[in-house]
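Supplementary Note 3. Input sequence used for the single-chain structure prediction.
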Amino acid sequence: MKAGILFLLIVGTLISLLILLVGGVSITIPKADKLIIIGTIAFFVLSIVIILRKWGYKLKLPVQEASAVVVEMRTETEEYSTVPGRATPTGLGKYKLQTKLGQSVLIGHCAVFEFDTGERIELKVKARDVSILREGMRGTLTYRQGWMKGFKPS
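The predicted structure, written as discrete structure tokens, is reproduced below.
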């Protein structure tokens, strides 16, 4: 979820909660409806808190760096219906390719790296980084939580 949308969700929820608690609503709301409204607002606030905690946890994880070899490159596709258009980056390491027939394909890239210890790890790779990786290439891998942050060939 993008930060701007998350910010608007938080502000909207807080304003709604404030209006409800202060009693600034001039219409009469039945008690059962008030409970539904309060429950809905509480659900959104709790959801936002959970999302922010997970996001914060992932950002606190250390960025790791190790010597590795690219063992395998893979492209994943996912199809769904949509309005015709063009290929656009989604920001999640995938490209959305919209065809004229109203079908879309999400294209994602993964790479398997093998460390000097023999351990292997599969990481998501952003579309802009795919061109620098080749199978058998050795270098220094920088990664965090399932995402490749960088790769410097040696």
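The first helix runs from residue 3 to 22. Confidence is low (pLDDT under 50) at residues 87-92.
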